[in-house]
Specification:
The protein is 58% helix and 10% strand. The chain has 166 residues and is of the alpha+beta class.
């Protein structure tokens, strides 16, 4: 993701991919996400960043097509968190939790699909142990921040949160 692709959103609600010089759809945006392509959606007139709103539209399209893993309860909880305000520390915790889940999902796919002679059961057990250790570190950091009253702290990640990305 060295070059961020710019997608312009026009007043007529059309999306224009400046890299490929063509109009694209929400399905194309979904493909960019799945391909881990870096992009930003900006309003053509104002230059405002509209990326999050467009990503929510992609999710809504997936829900409407029946292709979602996000349940009604989960969406309801996310709205409560979003509309109720969430301290920065808890927002970072939620984001890192999802990142960890996605990393683990990718590793499991690699382990189960690999043919390198590794025993998948023991590899999964090792992965589960690493996952547990990371979760314990993350939870300790969250509790420490809560006790110190630093849940609304700055955007800098703490050391345990950085280890999740290792």
């Amino acid at each position: 993701m060295t070059d961020t692709r710019i997608i312009k959103k026009y007043p007529n609600r059309r999306l224009y991919d400046t890299k490929d010089s063509r109009y694209i759809t929400l399905s194309d945006i979904c493909r960019l996400v799945m391909d881990r392509e870096g992009f930003e959606v900006v309003d053509q007139k104002s230059g405002d960043n509209l990326t999050c709103g467009i990503l929510l539209q992609v999710m809504a399209e997936q829900v409407n097509s029946g292709q979602t893993v996000v349940s009604r309860d989960m969406l309801t909880q996310l709205i409560r968190v979003y509309c109720g305000g969430l301290p920065e520390g808890l927002r970072a915790y939620l984001q890192e939790s999802l990142s960890l889940f996605l990393m683990q999902h990718q590793k499991i796919d690699e382990l189960l699909g690999g043919s390198d002679g590794t025993d998948p059961v023991s590899a999964l057990a090792d992965l589960a142990q690493q996952n547990l250790t990371r979760w314990i570190e993350l939870n300790k950091e969250l509790l420490r921040a809560a006790q110190e009253g630093n849940l609304a702290g700055d955007d800098n990640q703490s050391e345990p949160l950085k280890t999740l990305q290792a």
